[in-house]
Amino acid sequence: MATFFGEVVVAPSRAGLDEEEEAREETPEDREIRREIEKKRYRQRRGCADEPLVCSKFIVAIGRNAAAFLSSFILDSVCWEVVGVVKLWNEWCRTSSTTNVLPTDSFCLFYRLISDPTVLLCQCSCYVAEDQQFQWLEKVFGSMQKEGLQVTILSTCPVADYKTQESTLTLASPFLKALKTKEFQEQVCCPLLEQPNIVRDLPAA
Amino acid sequence: MFIPCDRGGGSAAPDFKGFTLLMPAVSVGNVGQLAIDLVISTLDMTKVGYFYTDCLVPMVGNNPYATAEENSTELSINAEVYSLPSKKLVVLQIRSPFIKNKYRPFCETLLSWVKSSKCARVVLLSSSHAYQRDDEQLLGTPLRYLLTPDLEKAVGGCMQELKWKEMEKVAAYPGISNTDKILHIPGGGITKLLFTESCSKGIQMAVLLKFCSEGDNIPDAFVLINYLNEWLQLIKSEVSTSNSSTDLSSQWKIPSSWRLLFGNGLPPALF
């Protein structure tokens, strides 16, 4: 793409292309740095119990708003107990050490309902990077013994991202929308998300 | 990698032996993906499965090809497979960008799936940055094709008859003469990698690409899909005059998910 000054610059593409993916030439130092960062990122640990948890209902809150909703209205120390944690690190964390991290930075906490231990709840308010999402899921779902599992995912998105015929300024917000699999037979408490809206990242994963 | 849809009744996994796999590269303007949307929507293809992969950014939404309330609530994710057995066609649609450093793993897994499912050939729809064309490429058609040696033997003659233009190779070191010529597809995403891997693995692959820029790429998608149709004849033109193959735009069905591509309605208070 040519600019006003006659120089040619690489135009960013909506397709999210990683130009030069093949032509990247790394010095040995670059390679070493990249390897160390990758090791730090892929060291995820599940704390507390390591045997599989039997689960019939799993509620996941992704993002600070959803996690705060659970903290304010659902969680309390009488009915719920902590049963596990997933720690992960990526470049968005404000601490550089993987051992002394702030809880909000890189923890995902798992709670169990004391009166029905097959009901699990997860608060994930840390940022899970694109390339960690799959691993996070495999780790979490891999450590569950699923029996007729019902999963509910709570998340928030900016109203400005909602695609609609009218302007989002005239919409009454906040508002709820849902996506459900065909196996989910119960009544959904709000309208379904219309095309062309989509959900991405960890809630989608 | 490929997970078939559970259609109930204990139906067997779909058989793609001898089928043509049509797929997009995530490339400049998303032209390949838009063209694939037109194919799936127009031919009313049935979803037969999806790819379980960690190579693409996750996304989910409701059915992008919905035509009515009843069929609008089926979930759709980032890499899904559709099939039309009557035309021996299987289509892969990719709906999100690749995660960093995952191009190669995806290509390897995809090509090994192509081999194991015994697809006869792969057709890749792609695009390349228009601003990187050289002086000669600026003139004439913006459409190009590439064939792996194995497919060249089978259909090379067909391309000559259609008077298609093969993608030119460029000098490895521009400005220096007598250097090797290499394939360079800027903005093409996985196109070059998939093509070179297919050449070395003996897979029959054709690449069809259009030079374009980011913007409203719907016209580019129509041009590319009509180009493909000249060869594969996925839809027949209604009028049988000699110029009919150049304007089939009205016969491709635009999916409902193409609404609002450029944003919402405007707030009245703006005026």
UniProtKB/TrEMBL annotation, chain A:
<dbReference type="GO" id="GO:0070628">
    <property type="term" value="F:proteasome binding"/>
</dbReference>
<dbReference type="InterPro" id="IPR016565">
    <property type="entry name" value="Proteasome_assmbl_chp_1"/>
</dbReference>
<keyword id="KW-0143">Chaperone</keyword>
<comment type="similarity">
    <text>Belongs to the PSMG1 family.</text>
</comment>
<dbReference type="GO" id="GO:0005783">
    <property type="term" value="C:endoplasmic reticulum"/>
</dbReference>
<dbReference type="Pfam" id="PF16094">
    <property type="entry name" value="PAC1"/>
</dbReference>
<protein>
    <recommendedName>
        <fullName>Proteasome assembly chaperone 1</fullName>
    </recommendedName>
</protein>
<dbReference type="GO" id="GO:0080129">
    <property type="term" value="P:proteasome core complex assembly"/>
</dbReference>
UniProtKB/TrEMBL annotation, chain B:
<dbReference type="GO" id="GO:0043248">
    <property type="term" value="P:proteasome assembly"/>
</dbReference>
<keyword id="KW-0143">Chaperone</keyword>
<dbReference type="GO" id="GO:0005634">
    <property type="term" value="C:nucleus"/>
</dbReference>
<comment type="function">
    <text>Chaperone protein which promotes assembly of the 20S proteasome as part of a heterodimer with PSMG1. The PSMG1-PSMG2 heterodimer binds to the PSMA5 and PSMA7 proteasome subunits, promotes assembly of the proteasome alpha subunits into the heteroheptameric alpha ring and prevents alpha ring dimerization.</text>
</comment>
<dbReference type="GO" id="GO:0005829">
    <property type="term" value="C:cytosol"/>
</dbReference>
<dbReference type="InterPro" id="IPR038389">
    <property type="entry name" value="PSMG2_sf"/>
</dbReference>
<dbReference type="InterPro" id="IPR016562">
    <property type="entry name" value="Proteasome_assmbl_chp_2_euk"/>
</dbReference>
<protein>
    <recommendedName>
        <fullName>Proteasome assembly chaperone 2</fullName>
    </recommendedName>
</protein>
<comment type="similarity">
    <text>Belongs to the PSMG2 family.</text>
</comment>
<dbReference type="InterPro" id="IPR019151">
    <property type="entry name" value="Proteasome_assmbl_chaperone_2"/>
</dbReference>
<keyword id="KW-0597">Phosphoprotein</keyword>
<keyword id="KW-0539">Nucleus</keyword>
<comment type="subunit">
    <text>Forms a heterodimer with PSMG1. The PSMG1-PSMG2 heterodimer interacts directly with the PSMA5 and PSMA7 proteasome alpha subunits.</text>
</comment>
<dbReference type="Pfam" id="PF09754">
    <property type="entry name" value="PAC2"/>
</dbReference>
